Amino acid sequence: MICLAPESSSKPIQTGALRILVGDDQPDVLAALRLLLKGAGYQAVLVDSPQALLRALRSETFDLILMDLNYARDTTSGQEGLDLLKSLEAQGNAAPIVVMTAWGSVDLAVEAMRRGACDFIQKPWDNARLLSTIRKQAAEASERAKTDRRVKSELEIARNVQQKLFPHESRRLATLDYAGRCLPAREVSGDYYDFLDTGEGGLGFVLADVSGKGVAAALLMANLQACFRSQPPEKLRHPSETLRLVNRLFHESTPAEQFATLFLGHYDDRTRRLRYANCGHPPPFLLRASGSLERLESTATVLGVFSEWACEERTVELQTGDTLVLFSDGVTEAGIDSEKEFGEDGLLSVIRANQGVAVETLVERIVAAVAGDRQDDVTVVALHAR
Q1: Taking Cα atoms as reference points, which of 34, 41, 111 lies closest to residue 66?
Q2: What is the longest distance spanned by two Cα atoms in the chain?
Q3: Structural domains in the chain plus CATH codes
Q4: pLDDT, position 208
Q5: Percent helix / strand / coil, the chain, rounded to 5
Q6: Number of H helices, E strands in the chain
Q7: Over the range 290-314, which residues count as b (16 or more CB within 10 Å of their CB) and which as e?
């Protein structure tokens, strides 16, 4: 393998000069490219095989890749280079790629571009055109990097703002402990949970999952939070009545293809009675102190699809030792891509194994069980009757 650092010269290469990884199996081509690039003020690292090129990228960072499409002397199809482009994509390469070959064709160029190359140079190359191509691709990559940094910064701000929308303090009740957490799959989440003070010893709690991902889902999540936070406390004591109003508001501001699944409950600390409505959300688990399991099934369709829709309300009592766990589908679907889906059985196993622990601990242990395998936002709310 050829792997050379830039030679010293009377004209030192400027600090911050573009670093270019060059891949070609012919020593004379590598030598010519090295001289050309050094003369233009670039730093070049030279490798002579696809394997060496991939190794170099795993250990160093480059601003651009200049690579041949043929490495075995008895082949001219460009297949080695096309396979290398596929490997670069799988490895997560972000540097722009310019491909070179002495056996170029329009079809090969199109296929190389389809697999991730930014431009195509045919051998023997024109020095001026090659340097112009490098400058162009480097400039475009620099602009993309600036845009990426700006977007990342804006998403970080959005993430911090969204985190402030989640509850950070809980009002103590005489007969109920409760806690929740949302772990986004990306910078921002389409999941929403909240605890709402309804006065007179009452607590409203909600967990919702807005369809879609990213910023659009996060904006709708914030809209949904505003819908609930704007309701008077006495109205929140009646889930079905509240949801009819919230659904109408949400429908007016939601694109036709988006919706939300949602569970809204109201707990009365004086009577231990829980009134709830489930709008197409995964049924929460109610694990009784005796060990028996109940599921709080849907009582209405999803939110936001219809301007007017029926919402049924149901009631259960929470006795000492009962635990209610609400969750988004990101919990049960964790690991599905690796065929190790966490599922309802996995969730129930964690809940049963942690009966009697503080609700904050239960929430953290459920989240920890799926955090490494999640593909979607993970949100958990747990309530335990004392």
Answers
A1: 34
A2: 87
A3: 19-151 (3.40.50.2300), 166-385 (3.60.40.10)
A4: 98
A5: 40, 25, 40
A6: 11, 15
A7: eeeeeebebbbbbbbbeeebebebe
Which amino acid would we find at residue 216? A
The amino acid at 103: W
pLDDT at 170: 83
Please report which helix (H) or strand (E) contains residue 243, including its range: helix 239-252
The Cα 50–Cα 170 span in angstroms is 58
Rounded to a whole number of angstroms, the CA Rg of the chain reads 29
pLDDT confidence of residue 3: 43
* Bridge partners, 161 (sequence order): none
pLDDT in tens, 227-286: 999 999 999 999 999 999 999 999 998 898 899 999 999 999 999 999 999 999 999 999
CA dihedral over 336, 339, 345, 348, signed as positive or negative: negative
Residue 112 · residue 85 · CB < 8 Å: yes
192: which residues sit within 8 A by CB, 6+ positions away?
165, 182, 206, 207, 208, 209, 210, 221, 224, 225, 379
**Among candidates 168, 178, 225, 180, which has minimal Cα distance to 202?**
178
For the chain, which residues score pLDDT lower than 70? 1-16, 73-75, 103-104
**Rounded to an integer, what distance in angstroms lies between the CA atom of residue 95 and that of residue 18?**
11
d(CA 278, CA 326): 11
Task: Give tens-digit pLDDT for 64-102.
Answer: 999 999 887 666 788 999 999 999 999 999 899 999 987
Spatial CA neighbour of 239 closest among 210, 203, 269: 203
Size of the chain in residues: 386
Residue 267 forms beta bridges with which residues? 203, 274
Q: Quick one: pLDDT at residue 97?
A: 97
Residue 232 vs residues 175, 225, 239, 309, 372: alpha-carbon distances, Å: 24, 14, 12, 21, 39
Helices (H), 198-238: 214-229, 233-236
Residue 17: predicted pLDDT: 81
What's the whole-model pTM score? 0.73
Say if residues 236 and 198 touch (Cβ distance below 8 Å): yes
